[in-house]
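Lecture 7, part B: from sequences to assemblies.

Below are the input chains for today's worked example.
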Amino acid sequence: MAGTEDVRQYVIFRLGPEEYGLPIAKVSSIIRYEPATPVPRSPEIVDGVINLRGRVIPVVNLAKKLFDTDFHPSSSSRIIVAEGEAGLVGLAVDAASEVVSIAVADILDPPETALTAETAEVFEGVARCEDRLIILLDLDKALPRGDYDSSASGEITEGDEDV
Amino acid sequence: MGDDMQAYKDIFVSESAEYVQSIVDGMLQLESNPNDLEPVEVVFRGAHSLKGMSAAMGYERTADLTHKMEGLMDTVRKREQAVDASLVDLVLRAVDIVKLLIDDEMNGRTVTDTSAIAAELAARAAGGGPAPAPVEAPGAVPMGAEQHVEGEEGGTTMVVRVSLEDACVLKSVRAYLVIKRLSHMGTVVETHPSARDIEDENFEHTFDVVLHTTELSADVSRAVSAVSEVSGVEITEAAPAPSVAAPVADRDAALGRLKKSIPKLSETQTVRIAIGHLDSMVNLVGELVIVRSRLENLARPLGHTGILETLEDLHRISSELQHEVMQTRMVPVGNIFNRFPRMVRDLARDLGKDVAFEMEGLDIELDRTVLDEIGDPLVHLLRNAVDHGVESAEQRAAAGKPARGTVRLSAMRERDQVQLVVSDDGGGMDPDHIWAKAVERGIVTADARETCSTEDVLMLTCVPGFSTADQATKVSGRGVGMDVVRGKIEYLGGSLTIRSKPGVGTEFVLSLPLTLAIIQALLLDAGGQTFALPLSFVNEVYAAEDVKVDTIDSGPVMTLRDGRVIPLYRLDVLIGSHDDHTRPPEPGEHVVLVEIADQARGLTVSRLVGRQEVVIKPLAKMLKQIRGLGGATVLGDGSVALILDPRMLFSMGEWEHR
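Predicted structure of the full complex, as structure tokens:
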């Protein structure tokens, strides 16, 4: 820390009443919102899939995860294309426009009182940036894993089918 | 410098493996037909090349041993000694040592002892073997040659002229169904216009199919008329034309040529390409095809002749490019089959069994990714066939069978699938025995027996936990159970069926997709969304008005023209956008007859969109577990359509309704 502060860059987006930040290294692009093709029997927070320049990627509705509400697209809505552990994924957000630098020293643990059990693990921390409070997301913890529905996806054995 | 050496080493390893394989192949060929000395040349040259390569790399131990092998083969070549089992054995053992030596060199060791085998080779070369038998008159037919001849003798060739109704919308789909039906009745020799033009709907309302069949023309006519929207069938029988006999003769000739052409070792014009390049080429071409159809959608309304003509060229070129690129990924199954003869031979020896191993269709090609994955399952099935399939000599004698058992591995092309069949003429599987075991292991309950067909019972061997202790011999009990075999095949998008007759033999049929990336699909709408259904599962398409619906056990069923009664499903219910699965097809809706492994089901959809070649895009990891979806594809307008996987789709529905 020899004089210069350790600074990280975050893409800031708005979802409902809050502002969230995602490390810029995780973000591959930001595109205008487009309705996704619904995928039957997918996890509830998956909106569907879209065509991103020839690749088919899932779009996740974080509002469902964070506030248990549906996503209401408007003209400012965007899809943030981020690189998660499980590949590219789109995040539907109400607006996304700026990149801010946040000093590591300004990142605090999230206040415990503000969290519910479901949302606690998806927050990496909060940062005060001028007079705003930005919630920093842990992308991979916010995304559903492939094993969400192991009961229905378990192998049907021949025995099950025949009996 | 070090990098250079490593590069040379890599080349040495891959090239030496080819020569080693050619020596093994040659020796096995010699063993099965000792009078045909052509393979001697292959083995001789293989050993010679290995010697040269090893010497160049400074691998003296390898060079020395291969020199001795070369010397021995030279005496055989000069007819100074005969080929017998002991010679074949000796050379095969020597090859094994060569493999160990190469391994040693790669790891900088000298642990393999070559003195014994080198001495044996030298002794044999010096005249330790039997004198050669007099050369047999040429023209002697090797045993089993007649098995290459098609079983389908006789029959007639007919030209079937099919007319479709003027109002027919999905002409190519109808034509596909007609041709598919005909191909079940005989051999479709050709079509006018060409298959590609029919696919692209480049025909008015009539097309001709030249069919070679043993069926009566009345039966053929009836089968074709049964396809809906076919307005007329006209059949002209041709005399048994030479053009039909020719392919068979040609093929025999080709087989002969194939045998003769084996010795040419260094003449194949190939380039080694990293698989990653091929994969990205396939992806890029896939995207090119998508962009092409988007362009076509944009240009059509403009009606500009110049643009449309140029687009047509683009269409043709990109189709050809796509075809070529897919071809580069296709590899003959022989590439993995070639290690099996040695394996089966050694295994049979270990078990003290006399087994003839036959392979067929080595030139059938499969996508590389499929082929890479299929080796282990095949090894397992072949081991099973030799170990559990073929009986002991005494048992065979008691059953009045020839002492020598036969295990056969064959590859066949069937529509957009390749079938690999592992069969034996052994004791077969006993359904009662299997059932008893399954009950014992708690996989099924004893009283459910009547509801299971014999095939269902045989498939119980593929349920995890079935594999039994008395099955786990040294040979087959190596961790891969039948459940793993079946899992692997289904993972590849294929299916496994077992046929067995007690006392006669067992047949394992693996149906595999030719390629994983591009399929023909029927696009259809349900629940306000477009889906793609792989055309290979589609057997027929009916308008709702033409379907007679009944109810059995509160589930809707439909009766087919041939009297079969099949269950009826609704796609909108299966995808969860509707609840009422008893709702019959309404006017305007269509019923797609989906056939999976001889099981037919009706699938009601709101609208048929058309037939299209689609590029399969994998679904993201978080969506992979969803049953009934095989991936996604991008349509001409840039939107995404999900690809249905009928094999899982219905089990998902059955799950729901119970």
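Note for the exam: Residues 147-163 of chain A have pLDDT under 50 and may be disordered. Keep this in mind when comparing with the next example.
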